[in-house]
Design a protein that fits this description.
By secondary structure, the chain is α+β, with helices and mostly antiparallel strands. The chain has a single domain, classed as Maf protein. The chain has 7 helices and 10 strands. Strands 1, 2, 3, 5, 6, 7, 8 and 9 form an 8-stranded mixed beta sheet that branches. The chain has a two-stranded antiparallel sheet with strand order 4-10. The relative contact order is 0.20.
Length: 266
Amino acid sequence: MQQKSMGVWLASASERRTEVLIEMLKGVPVWFAHCALIGEETPVPTGIVVEEMVSHITNEKANTAKLEVSLGRIEQLSWHWMGNNDCEHPNSKDADIKSRGNMKGGNTLKPAVIVKPPPPPTSIENVIVIVADTLVADPDDAFSALGQPADELSAAGMLIRLSGRRHLVWSGTTLFGAFVSDGVESATVEVAELSESNLGYLLNSGSWKGKAGAYDLAGKMASNAKLVAGDNLAVLGFASEVLSELMEKLETICHSSGSYSATKSL
């Protein structure tokens, strides 16, 4: 019987989210694609708490992705086969990334036999689409979010605001297509008092670019901040429970195809 062709599309330009999913999906017999949505970014709404902002933006991204799927986006994606335990991806830079955090499940599968991959999926019925969004809550205002800084000056303002304090990071994740799920989670991060030299290093490194709150906890900010509550995945850009459900769904599909066997959780 021909193996069912399944795909996972991360509809995001985030390198960090891509690295997290590549690590999770290694050895799972699915096709993987990562590519940003064509539509414009959803503006951050006002007048609601940050948790609701993230939920709203994630829902809007899902609606945009559904529209793009209806216009044939699936057929335009560049797919990468993940069904080899030693598979590597050119965008995977940090081998030590703790992508699973406290997530239940994870990749609990290994290949029973090496099989020739099926053709990439061409229909949304065989693709799980992932959209996600992350915002950093202003430590002084539950109705204000620190999104991606527009330039170095705004990045400096955000880092100074977070320096020496704790703040919440909110991440939302929505799945649709062959499997549907959504959720929003938070984590608490504590930033050390940033000296002038530390601040200058973070700004000059460019690590603030494209990052909510102007920092990357798994990157240059690692030595200046720490996770004190919640799941590491929330800081890296995902709701951990949703990704747990994704891996459980893929495990079910893999077992039903007969190509994988269960092992101890990694």
